[in-house]
Design goal:
Blueprint (H helix, E strand, L loop, with lengths): L6 H4 L3 E3 L6 H5 L12 E4 L3 H14 L3 E4 L13 E4 L6 E4 L4 E5 L4 H8 L4 E2 L10 H6 L7 H4 L6 E7 L5 E4 L5 H7 L8 E8 L1 E2 L4 E8 L3 H14 L4 E8 L7 E8 L3 H7 L1 H4 L6 E2 L2 E2 L6 H4 L9 E7 L4 H8 L8 E6 L19 E7 L4 H17 L23 H14 L14
Parallel strand pairs: 2-4, 3-4
Antiparallel strand pairs: 1-2, 5-6, 6-10, 7-11, 8-9, 8-10, 12-14, 12-15, 12-16, 13-14, 13-18, 17-19, 18-19
Length: about 425
């Protein structure tokens, strides 16, 4: 493309074009099952470099798709400049104000490590390698969301580059519409280079995983429902049906409690009345150790996912989940929501009133397996009490923004997109327009 001939001289960061050594490696997303085309890849040096890239793209009729490291990619990047923001990695903690200022490339684990010595925490998800900014732009479901709501609800300001190439500081007071859209509406409206967010007290944390053979799944499920029916907001419990290659099927309970170990053990007492587990990693831990609970892969790999929000987990739903082995799926996860998620939220998602989230995951090792995984996901989703709404950050490549947002919120997002980026310079993983 002739428009790209002078790109290297326009930015300070590293530029790779098709045919350059390593181009195919740097354009790949985290999910290797997604094919991600790109006209070029730019690793921005800093926020000023991002602004220079936007001005270049605007002058040359190019579009930009932004990803720190490729989580949430859907492959909608054909013809775009793929912007990597991993080098925007500053972390500043103000313990007195309980605030953090972080660059767009900072992963969750780094923020947690910086906050932990001060007895504070961000709102981390299950993986320490996902960028905080990427999660916040999608709303964000956290281990501590039952206590503190969406990840986006804790964001107090964004540093962005707008579609004209200007660097701006955006707050609820300075630009209410853009601030609202960025707190969960995705990356369609501006490029975020840094954000400021509230941190939360975490003087003590108890958490870990218990694991049983799948034959105990009915008893584990009964205990799970008993615990989640009465759980305080500081307690989060997830149930996982697991079937790893070469291993027997298993069932796990993952839990975190923002409080002392004695109270946590009391709340989780129904688990101690179950048959002896294969393993039990529960302990007092630092908030920087949360990634050890589910031990998700920290390197890219292929996967097929589907998420649903469940209106309940009654006997019929339980019977459906446990009726037969989950294969060819690798995992079926049920996350307890409620608490602060269900309270008013000034973001595109609004309150999350469904009490449970379902996440179905499999590996497409070959085309036949991919079809079988997708079919099993569809069958389970259709048989369970799903609301029809999905968390935006959990959307897969076959889904659209209309699957996540209510019509009124989606209409507002589309108006903001048209107003702030009428040339469609910015291309989100899941664009609000389609």
């Amino acid at each position: 493309m002739n428009e790209l001939n002078t790109l290297r001289s326009a930015v300070e960061g590293r530029v790779r074009l098709p045919g350059d050594p390593g181009f195919d490696d740097v354009r790949r997303p985290w999910n290797l099952a997604v094919e991600q085309p790109a006209a070029a890849v730019v690793e921005a040096a800093d926020a000023a470099d991002v602004a220079a890239l936007v001005r270049y793209a605007r002058a040359n009729g190019l579009a930009i798709a932004t990803q720190p490291n490729g989580h949430g990619a859907t492959g909608r990047t054909g013809g775009t400049v793929l912007l990597r923001t991993a080098r925007l990695d500053t972390v500043e903690i103000d313990p007195a104000a309980r605030r953090a200022r972080i660059g767009a490339g900072v992963p969750s684990g780094r923020l947690q490590a910086a906050a932990a010595p001060h007895g504070l925490t961000g709102l981390p998800g299950s993986s320490p390698v996902v960028s905080v900014t990427g999660v916040a732009l999608g709303g964000g479901l956290s281990w501590f969301g039952r206590a503190h709501g969406w990840v986006a609800d804790s964001v107090t300001a964004f540093d962005v580059v707008d579609a004209d190439g200007w660097q701006r500081h955006v707050t609820a007071g300075s630009d209410p519409d853009l601030f609202w859209a960025l707190r969960g509406g995705g990356g369609d409206f501006a490029i975020v280079t840094a954000l400021e967010l509230a941190l939360h007290p975490a003087p003590s944390l108890y958490g870990g995983r218990m694991l049983w053979t799948a034959g105990h799944a009915p008893e584990v499920m009964d205990a799970y429902r008993q615990i989640t029916a009465e759980a305080p907001e500081e307690l989060t419990v997830w149930l996982d049906l697991l079937h790893f290659p070469g291993a027997d099927p298993m069932v796990a309970i993952d839990a975190t409690y923002l409080g002392d170990a004695g109270r946590a053990r009391d709340l989780l007492a129904p688990l101690d009345r179950l048959p002896r587990p294969l393993s039990d990693s529960r302990r007092t831990m630092a908030v920087s150790e949360l990634g050890t609970i589910t031990a998700e892969p920290t390197d890219p790999g292929p996967g097929l996912s589907r998420a649903e929000l469940l209106t309940g987990l009654d006997d019929t739903a339980v019977k459906t989940l446990l009726a037969e082995p989950i294969a060819p799926l690798l995992s079926v996860q049920v996350r307890h929501l409620g608490g602060a998620f269900a309270r008013p939220s000034d973001g595109p998602h609004g309150p999350l009133t469904e009490p449970y989230a379902l996440y179905l995951f499999g590996i497409p090792s070959d085309p036949a397996t991919a079809r079988a995984v997708t079919a099993r996901q569809r069958a389970l989703a259709e048989a369970l009490p799903a609301s029809g709404r999905k968390p935006f950050s959990f959307l897969n490549p076959a889904e659209t923004a209309a699957d996540a947002f209510a019509p009124a919120a989606l209409d507002r997002l589309r108006r903001i997109k048209q107003d702030r980026d009428p040339r469609n310079t910015f291309r989100s993983n899941v664009p609000v327009a389609g």
